[in-house]
Design goal:
Elements lengths: L11 E4 L2 E3 L9 E6 L4 E22 L4 E4 L4 E15 L2 E14 L7 E4 L4 E2 L8 H13 E4 L20 E6 L2 H10 L5 E9 L5 E10 L1 H11 L7 H6 L2 H15 E4 L5 E2 L2 E2 L5 E7 L2 H12 L3 E8 L4 E2 L2 E2 L3 E8 L2 E3 L4 E15 L3 E6 L2 E6 L10 E2 L14 E3 L5 H10 L5 H15 L6 H9 L14 E3 L2
Parallel strand pairs: 4-9
Antiparallel strand pairs: 1-2, 1-24, 3-4, 4-5, 4-23, 6-7, 6-8, 8-22, 10-11, 11-13, 12-13, 14-17, 15-16, 17-21, 18-21, 19-20, 24-25, 26-27, 27-28
Helix pairs in contact: 1-5, 5-6, 8-9
C-alpha cells in the first residue's frame, strides 16, 4: 500500500494493538482477514512485511470509494461465471455460479464483485452484558467520563493530576431518546437531573436530562469493559459480534439517523435510495471507533467529510470537521470500478495466514488481499520484522544467489556462520546445485528446507545492508 500520508490519516494495518504502520509491526501481530470457508472475517497472523522505495501505482475508485495499490495487488472478490441458459415460464435466463477468488487489480472485470468487508468473529468479548454494551454506545456518542478531584489526600493521580474515581455521565434532550435511556439504565445506580436549556438564538429549548452513574459502578464497568473514552478503538476490537451490535445500536441512537427513501430498486429500474443507517461524528477517536465497528459488523463504511469550520450557528462559531458515515454493502461491482495510473511512490504490504488483511487508506477501512510475488522480485525489509534478522539496525536487502561460491562468500563476509553451520550449509547447497537458479523466497525455501518463514530464524539467508 502507498506509504504517502495525509495529515492525521496514515496508511495503516489493523492489529490487536490497534492501527499500526508497517514499521511498527512485530512478530506475533495479527490482523483481521477473510476466511472464505466460513464467509466471515477473523484474526490471522502476519507472517511477512514487504517494503519498496519506489513502485508503480494505480488508483481504483467509484463514486464513494477509492484505494491506491500496485497493479498486481490482489483483492478478495466474488467471481460470477456464466454456466449456460435455462428456460423458465417461456423465457430464457442466463445462469451464473459465484466463486470466491483473489483477483489482481489489473484484471478486475465486470464479472467480479470486490469484497471490502465481512462480519468479524472476534471472540467472546469482555465480561459485560448487552445492556452495558449499548449503554457504552450511548456514552461514546452523547456522554463522557469525568474524573472529579477530591479534597481527600491521595485521591488525585500523581501523573494526570485528576481524580482517581471516574464517573460515567450521559446527557440527552430528545424525548424519544430520553425514554430509551431510562429503559436501558433501569436497575443501575445513578443520579438523574433535568435542566432547562436554550437554543443558540436564546429561545427556550428542550430540557436536558443528565444521568450520572455512581462512582463505584462506573469504575467497575470501565475495568470490566476496558472502555477508554479517549481511545475507544481497543474496546471495539474486543467486543463479540452480539456486543458490537448492541454497542452500535447505542451509538446510532446518540449520533445516528437514516438516509434514503427506502424504495431502492424497482421493476422499472432505479428510482430511489435504499434506507441506510448513517452516523454523524466529529473527527477524533470516537469517529475512528464508529468506522471500525461498522466495518467489523460486515458493512463497508461509506464516508462523506463535512468541513464546518467557520460556520455560524446562532451566536456560536463551529471550528470542527465531521463525517457522515453510512452502513453500505460490503461489495463493489467490478463494472463500477475505475482504474487510473498515478505517480510512483514508496509502498508496503504484508503476507498473512488467510491471504487477506484489513487496511485503512485515509478514512477508508477495507479488506484487501495478500502481497503476492513481491519477495521474488526483491525488496527492502524493515529491520527486526518477521522475515529478516538484522543486527545492524539498518534495512537489509535479500540477495538472489549468483552461484554457490558467491553465496558462501557473502555469508562468510558477514561472519554469520559457525563451523557446524558451515557443514550444514554445504549439505543444503549440494541439494540446491541440482535445482535451477532461483531467487528470493524460492531460494530461501531451498537452502532452509522449510517455508519462507524460516528466513526469520535462519543464519543462512543472504542479506546485505543497504548503504
Amino acid at each position: 500500500m502507498p506509504r504517502r500520508r495525509e495529515p492525521g490519516w496514515p496508511r495503516v494495518i489493523l492489529t490487536r494493538r490497534g492501527w499500526l504502520t508497517y514499521d511498527e509491526i512485530q512478530p506475533g501481530d495479527e490482523t483481521i482477514g477473510y476466511n472464505g470457508e466460513s464467509g466471515r472475517s477473523e484474526w490471522t497472523p502476519i507472517t511477512a512485511v514487504h517494503y519498496y522505495e519506489d513502485a508503480p501505482l494505480i488508483r481504483l475508485s467509484n463514486k464513494t470509494w477509492e484505494a491506491a495499490c500496485t497493479p498486481h495487488h490482489r483483492w478478495a472478490a466474488d467471481h460470477w461465471k456464466h454456466v449456460g441458459k435455462k428456460g423458465r415460464q417461456g423465457r430464457t435466463q442466463n445462469e451464473y455460479t459465484r466463486e470466491g477468488v483473489f483477483v489482481e487489480a489489473l484484471h478486475i472485470t465486470t464479472r467480479h464483485s470486490l469484497r471490502l468487508a465481512a462480519e468479524a468473529e472476534t471472540g467472546e468479548g469482555p465480561a459485560i452484558s448487552l445492556q452495558e454494551a449499548e449503554l457504552l454506545g450511548w456514552v461514546l456518542g452523547d456522554g463522557w467520563v469525568a474524573y472529579p478531584k477530591s479534597r481527600t489526600p491521595g485521591s488525585t493521580h500523581w501523573r494526570t493530576q485528576r481524580g482517581t474515581r471516574p464517573s460515567i455521565r450521559l446527557g440527552q434532550a430528545k424525548p424519544e431518546h430520553v425514554k430509551r435511556i431510562d429503559e436501558l439504565v433501569a436497575g443501575l445506580l445513578f443520579t438523574r437531573t433535568v435542566r432547562q436549556m436554550r437554543t443558540p438564538a436564546g429561545a427556550p429549548g428542550l430540557p436536558l436530562v443528565t444521568w450520572e452513574f455512581h462512582r463505584p459502578y462506573s469504575a467497575e464497568l470501565l475495568k470490566r469493559s476496558g472502555y477508554d473514552h479517549e481511545n475507544p478503538v481497543p474496546f471495539v476490537l474486543s467486543l463479540s459480534p452480539t456486543q458490537r451490535e448492541a454497542f452500535l445500536r447505542g451509538v446510532h441512537g446518540a449520533d445516528g439517523g437514516y438516509a434514503g427513501d427506502g424504495e431502492g430498486f424497482g421493476d422499472r429500474g432505479y428510482h430511489g435510495y435504499a434506507r441506510t443507517k448513517v452516523y454523524y461524528q466529529n473527527d477524533g477517536p470516537q469517529q475512528e471507533a464508529i468506522i471500525l465497528a461498522i466495518y467489523l459488523s460486515g458493512y463497508r463504511p461509506g464516508i462523506q467529510v463535512k468541513n464546518n469550520s467557520g460556520k455560524k450557528i446562532g451566536r456560536w462559531t463551529v471550528s470542527t470537521t465531521h463525517a457522515v458515515i453510512s452502513e453500505t454493502r460490503p461489495f463493489i461491482g467490478g463494472e463500477k470500478v475505475r482504474r487510473e495510473q498515478i505517480e510512483n511512490a514508496p509502498v508496503w504490504c504484508v503476507t498473512t495466514g488467510l491471504g487477506s488483511w484489513t487496511m485503512r487508506q485515509g478514512r477508508n477501512v477495507m479488506l484487501t488481499g495478500n502481497s503476492f510475488n513481491w519477495y521474488d522480485q526483491g525488496g527492502v525489509l524493515p529491520p527486526g520484522v518477521t522475515m529478516a534478522v538484522n543486527n545492524t539496525g539498518r534495512n537489509e536487502r535479500v540477495v538472489p544467489p549468483c552461484g554457490d561460491d558467491a553465496v558462501l562468500a557473502e555469508l562468510k563476509r558477514q561472519n554469520m556462520m559457525t563451523r557446524e553451520q558451515n557443514l550444514l550449509l554445504a549439505q543444503q547447497l549440494a541439494v540446491a546445485r541440482r535445482a535451477p537458479a532461483q531467487s528470493g523466497i524460492s531460494f530461501a525455501r531451498t537452502i532452509n528446507g522449510a517455508s519462507a518463514r524460516a528466513v526469520a530464524h535462519s543464519a543462512y539467508a543472504v542479506r546485505r545492508p543497504i548503504a
